[in-house]
């Protein structure tokens, strides 16, 4: 091989050698880059997973905490609702019991008072007491008046309650009835007895009617004697009652059509006196009434009559 070929051969060998080194350097540069990229990708992925786990755990914890709080709130609400429901039930129960008690109390109060007597029974007794005070009757007559459809129309048991509890003396009632007949419609004893005992009359018992007849004269006599004792009516003689005392003395009212009566005047001895005149103005007489109510009459000449 000549010198020229040998040099070319060496240059060729050097070229191949240098080409291989460049190729290896290039391959090493690309491979290194790729390796670094892969490593970075792995690191990035690991970091991403790490942060994701942290977020997941945080979110999970928050979710669990929120869920737990929600469960606690729900449980508290349920407990509160249960307590409220129990309270409402208790209140409703108490209210119902109170209503029942009130209704029972009102019903009891309406039908029966504290002494166990109904309102209608008490009203019947009050009506009987009014009759006893203003219009005394026999027991049978009062019962008929209380139960009659033309009367008070009380039930029979209410009327009987009134009769049983009325403080009345039916003998005295019979006597008062007899006195009323004597004053406004005088009658014989037999007729009065029949009127007092008749079913169409006063319906007193025979014993009550006989008591009235036996005592009516004595009772009237007592009243008459009371009327005659006029001094008791005028314990004190005054200007306002002098004329009344004189009228009681005369037994009639003063004749104002014939005479003119002067105003009474009190005298020095405490007696009262007044004169009366004719319509012509002439003295017709006079009266003197002493402190004890004793009347003395004088004529026109001053002479005691």
Please, could you describe this protein's structure?
The chain is an alpha+beta fold. It has four domains: 8-111; 118-164, Arc Repressor Mutant, subunit A, CATH 1.10.10; 169-228, Winged helix-like DNA-binding domain superfamily/Winged helix DNA-binding domain (Arc Repressor Mutant, subunit A, Orthogonal Bundle); 232-299. The chain contains eight helices and five strands, in the order ααααααααβββββ. Strands 1, 2, 3, 4 and 5 form a five-stranded antiparallel β-sheet that branches. Helix 5 packs across helix 7 (206-228). It is elongated, with a radius of gyration of 66 Å. The model is unreliable at 54-60, 62-69 and 227-231 (pLDDT under 50).
Roughly what fraction of the amino acids lie in strands? 5-15%
Kindly name the structural category.
Answer: alpha+beta
How far the N terminus sits from the C terminus, by CA atoms, comes to 221 Å
Q: Count structural domains.
A: 4
Specify the number of helices.
8
Mean pLDDT equals: 75
- The secondary-structure element order is HHHHHHHHEEEEE
What's the main sheet like?
5 strands, antiparallel
Poorly predicted spans: 54-60, 62-69, 227-231
Number of strands: 5
- The rough form would be described as elongated
Radius of gyration: 66 Å
Percent helix: 55-70%
Quick summary of this structure?
This protein is an alpha+beta fold. It has 8 helices and 5 strands, in the order H-H-H-H-H-H-H-H-E-E-E-E-E. About 7% of the residues have low confidence.
Identify the notable features of this structure and list them briefly.
305 residues; alpha+beta; Arc Repressor Mutant, subunit A; 4 domains; 5-stranded antiparallel β-sheet; 8 helices; 66% helix
């Amino acid at each position: 091989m000549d010198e020229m070929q040998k040099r070319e051969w060496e240059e060729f060998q050097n070229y191949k050698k240098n080409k291989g080194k460049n190729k290896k350097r290039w391959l090493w540069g690309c491979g290194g880059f790729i390796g670094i990229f892969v490593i970075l990708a792995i690191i990035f992925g690991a970091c991403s997973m790490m942060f994701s786990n942290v977020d997941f755990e945080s979110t999970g914890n928050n979710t669990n905490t929120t869920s737990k709080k929600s469960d606690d709130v729900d449980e508290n609400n349920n407990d509160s609702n249960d307590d409220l429901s129990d309270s409402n039930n208790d209140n409703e129960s108490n209210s119902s019991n109170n209503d029942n008690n009130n209704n029972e109390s009102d019903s009891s109060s309406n039908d029966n008072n504290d002494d166990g007597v109904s309102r209608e029974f008490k009203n019947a007794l009050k009506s009987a007491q009014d009759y006893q005070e203003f219009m005394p009757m026999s027991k049978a007559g009062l019962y008929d008046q209380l139960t009659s459809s033309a009367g008070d129309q009380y039930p029979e048991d209410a009327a009987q309650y009134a009769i049983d509890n009325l403080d009345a003396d039916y003998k005295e009632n019979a006597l008062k009835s007899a006195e009323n007949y004597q004053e406004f419609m005088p009658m014989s004893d037999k007729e009065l007895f029949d009127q007092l005992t008749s079913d169409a009359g006063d319906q007193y018992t025979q014993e009550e009617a006989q008591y009235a007849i036996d005592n009516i004269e004595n009772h009237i006599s007592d009243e008459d004697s009371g009327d005659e004792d006029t001094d008791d009516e005028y314990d004190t003689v005054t200007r306002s009652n002098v004329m009344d005392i004189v009228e009681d003395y005369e037994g009639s009212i003063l004749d104002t059509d014939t005479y003119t009566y002067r105003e009474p005047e009190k005298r020095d001895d405490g007696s009262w006196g007044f004169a009366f005149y004719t319509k012509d103005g002439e003295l017709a007489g006079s009266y003197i009434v002493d402190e004890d109510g004793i009347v003395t009459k004088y004529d026109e000449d001053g002479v005691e009559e």
